[in-house]
Amino acid sequence: MTKYSSLSDYELTVLLKAGDRMAFTEIYVRYFWVLHSHAYKWMRNREETRDVIHELFLALWEKRDSLSFERGLLSYLSAA
What pLDDT does 76 receive? Predict the structure, then answer.
């Protein structure tokens, strides 16, 4: 069994594109608070910030097969 926390972002994105839910979960765990902290600086509302981050991850899952992560996963998530 793969230990997802030890995988690189690149490896996670390959698995994500293949529909691997555990890879998606690892991406969520790895980046939720990083993104939350970044977005909260702009929004200054924790509930709205949380909602926006959840919408981002929902879109990530729904569009996973058509996304491009050329600049890296965190770069993609931060820009989105």
Answer: 92
Written as six digits, the tokens of 34 are 């990083």
Is-above-0.85 flag for pTM? yes
Q: How far apart are CA 3 and CA 56, in angstroms?
A: 24
Q: Indicate the DSSP class of residue 4.
A: G
For the chain, counts of helices (H) and of strands (E) = 4, 0
Q: Which residues of the chain have pLDDT under 50?
A: none
Which pLDDT belongs to residue 26? 98
- Report how far apart, in Å, the C-alpha atoms of 53 and of each of 6, 18, 36, 40 are: 23, 22, 7, 10
Residue with tokens 């994105």, as numbered in its chain? 13
Q: Are the C-beta atoms of 32 and 56 separated by less than 8 Å?
A: no
Kindly state the tokens that stand for 10.
């690149």
